[in-house]
Amino acid sequence: MHGFLVFFTGRQGLLRMSAIMVLVCGVTFFTSGQSQITNLATIKKNDLTTRIWLGSQLLPGYGQIYNRQYWKIPVFYAGMGSMAYFGYHKNSDFKRYQRIYQQLPTYDPVRESIKIKAEENRQQRNLFYAAATAFYLASVSDAILVYNRSNHSPAAATILSTLVPGMGQAYNGAYWKIPVIYGGLSTLYFMTDWNNRGYDRFKTALISLIDGDPNTIDEFNGTRTEDELRYYMDSYRRNRDLSILGLAAVYVLNIIDANVDGYLYDWNVDDNLAFKVEPSVFNTNLDYTQVTPAFGFTCRVTF
Fold this sequence. Notes:
Shape: flat
Number of strands: 2
């Protein structure tokens, strides 16, 4: 302690203290400057990621042009164009069979086969349109992933989960969350569809009972009153709306989770990170007989 006081007293001590303060301030300023530069670089990277996302949405292929991967543009456009073309023709066939089905009398034996063909064309149309959408989403996702291949971007994780639920979690390496997300989405989608079908059933029966419309069929054959039909119809509608809200909530939580995980991706969560307080003995060197050993505590941080 005496040596410490001697070192920092007098004119030379003031000079030493000033030099140390300048050094500490310089290190602090340099560290702060490096942190600010890193933060500014991250913000700029996220802004460019968002710009590429918006540009790729408005004009598919914009991200590939920005990344200078021009050969991918005809691949994506060929996929989107061909799938949309086939979907358009299947939609025309579906409408044609639908018109024939509606024009045929109910007792015509061909009517059922026409209905089946119309349904097949409708399903094929939906598949082709879904494939065209998949090519579109692939072009946007590819642009974001290629641009951020050198570092991890929270903006990229957020955008990917917005485009396809679970993709941001895959980008963050949290693969175990993907079945949880799709389990919630599929369950709520089933509940929405099931309640919507129940709502349609009781709504059709109620219209048939009230209006006596021959085009609608009361599957209960008048065994249920108007109040009962209205009660069940409102119940199914309320449950359907709640299921839709739940579906939207899971989708939004999927985006928020990807964003948070993206920011915590580089966070040090190693098991070796620890803070320990241990008793210790100081001044144990026996060569210095004038120094009395002292007892205290040692704080140790390992990382």
